[in-house]
UniProtKB/TrEMBL annotation:
Keywords: Coiled coil, Hydrogen ion transport, Ion transport, Membrane, Transmembrane, Transmembrane helix, Transport. It is found in: Membrane. Residues 85-119 form a coiled coil. This is V-type proton ATPase subunit a. The keyword Transmembrane applies.
Amino acid sequence: MGELLRSVKMSLLRFLVPDEASHETIFELGKLGIVNFRDLNSNLSAFQRPFIEEARRLDDLEKILVFFESQLDFVAWGDIPQDRLLTKEEEKEIILEDLDNLEGNFENLQTNLRDLLRNETNLLIQYYDLNLRVLVLEKVEKLLAMEKIQNLASSRNNTILSQIDNKNLTKNDSEDDINEIPLLEIQSGSQSEMGFESDNTENQKGLQFVCGTIPRERVATLERILWRATLGNIYLKTVDLDHRIKNPRNNTYERRCVFIIFFQGIKTREKILRVCTLMSGNLHQIPEKKKDRIKLSEESKTQIQDLKEIIESGKKHKIEAIIGLKIRFPVWYERIHKEKSIYNILNLFKDDETKKVLIAEGWAPENSITEIRECIEKATDISGSTLPTIIDVIERIPEDYIPPTYFPVNNFQKGFQDMVDSYGIANYGEINPAPFSIITFPFLFAVMFGDVGHGLLLTSFAIWVLFVSKKLEKISKVNEIVKVLYDGRYIILLMGIFSIYTGLIYNEFFSLSMNLFGTCWEPRNNSLVLDLKYHGCTYPIGIDPSWWGATTELLYSDSLKMKLSVLFGVTQMLFGIILSLFNHIHFKKWLNILFEFLPQVILLSSFFGYMNILIIDKWVTDWSTRENQTGGVHLITTLIKMALSPMGVSAEDEIYQNQNGVQFFLLIVFALCIPWMLLPKPFILRHRAKQKIKRGYKLENSSNTSDSSDSNFNHVPVYTQPFEFSEVMINQLIHTIEFVLGSISNTASYLRLWALSLAHSQLSKVFWEMIFITCAKIKIGGSLAIVFGFCAWACLTIGVLLIMECLSAFLHALRLHWVEFNTKFYISDKSKKFEPFTFKYIKNEIKNFRK
């Protein structure tokens, strides 16, 4: 608990590492994972670091690994025979393999795999084009009236286009319409193939056609553009392919149409070809004669069968190559990433003048120094270095060296610590709010969400998340929402448990009251007026069930929850100020105790603490025994009069004797605390600064500061920073105003507990009465109406109350901790998180990859 309350004590270590033992030393420290190295080369650019060449080389190998990883999903682990998996000896050989040999193997494997992929892509493109050709031949056969076209006399060529235009055949007509068109004949002497490659002069005078395929969604655009480009001198016919086809050029499935375009003239042909190319059309040469088309179709099908065999053979070679990569990839990944992280750390080290020893500095927990020394000795033995690695603990740490903050947490504490770290990392030695948030956060959430039924559902959900946490851990790597649920599973569990507790206090179960222990009220003479059964009767826990359904139900619960909100808020703020006292004592800031802590506690207690005392006093006082005060007093009126007229409390409104004098004294104390916080501290600091200069300290400037990494840590400081009184005074003024105004606004901010609790209760009640009860009263439909009403009520309860309201209460509770609580003691202005050099994350990634 002590290490969670304050950061683990850190020591600054200096390492003198022989060059020949540097790699093994960092490797062993990475396995240990408890040293956070400092950058001693911060004045150098990335290209001036001592091991930049090795780091670049490993970056290139990492890029090759990324390429390998992109291909590994083609083969599943279950498809790999057990005898192909690597043994421990083979894995060890890869780990110990020379980096030069590994680099050469990577380049050869990359080249071979890229060649296989390139050949496979080319073959698939050929296969795709041949399939399209066969499909085009099949569809075009239905579109062409080739026999009639060949029997047409050349004299009728001049009337063709006009006749086509008169029949409006640019639309997608039926196949029967084509047979009704006056047929056109190509010059009888032409024996060449018709298509977009025909250059015969006489063919250019006759009717020509172009055919191919185009994406179905672009057919209308193609038709419109061609019509405008050729002034309507074309005939376009299309037909859809029966199924989607995968295009290997972009690895997408497409819906394509076969089209055929009839036209005249070489210029028209050029326009058509250009437009079809721009519209992602695939053009195909189709012979004029039917027997030639049949022959081409048969040849294409033969080529398709040959390509299938070649593609299958290529896939087998690719699978063999990928299996060889996959069984070695985890070992390669671990080796490359460890080497890269080692050289990145070595780039933080500084060379000494002899270039034989590397100088390093790092932070480590005090209790782990012995373990680090043993690790260093092991690395020296493995490397065979004749020079030992020297470790020194720097006793006198320079002021500009900020130790990192480290809180060792378990799975239960991690969610709360992450929540606090989102606000800011604690300064080294500063009190950590996380231990207190374990209780206060779910409690404040439950104050707003209190309901036994809703709490049970939330707790059940949290227990389910705990049972499937191992599965969720894998999914959380790629899904952000699942990661939030996994990290906050224990927070959700406590939120549910505390909601059950506050639901018992509120006596609410899905907005219904629970008569668990019997009521203390009974009807007066069989009327609707209730009296206490006996004097002093109290309900064992929470609110008496008789209050629910009474005419004063809302007024009673409203008053109770509002007062509870103020009590909890002022108590938590006072607790935060008390925690600041322990911070001041730890950092030996005695001025802050005298001129910040004391006036802040007195100021907050003199008004808001007094208000809490009045609330409790009103609850415990039997007002029925008071003359002229049987209904109690209004505390809001009392507090307003205290501020505006402290001596104006009348006898009817007096709660206790000498109330006027006490309230006047508290107001005087409240007013005196403001200059107490504002004035003394800046003047005392100015006096101390003058005394330092008199004792011989010099003002610090940029010309006499030296590099911290080369400075002697045991020297006596002779420099002091210049003191700016105006800056200190303005800063103190801002803090004083912020606290005085914040004490009012923060107290009012805690009223959100009352508002959200009331809204949650009333909304739950509305859902029950207006939906379920209303449906249950419907006579038509009977049980069907009840089932419908229950389903609608359950959906709204889960969607609105358990999701939206839960998220709203969570955010409000988080805001109260970050703004109202943490600001009282949690500075977090000079902090740095402890980030040790470790191989742990690499091992976790390897485990996930193997799974």
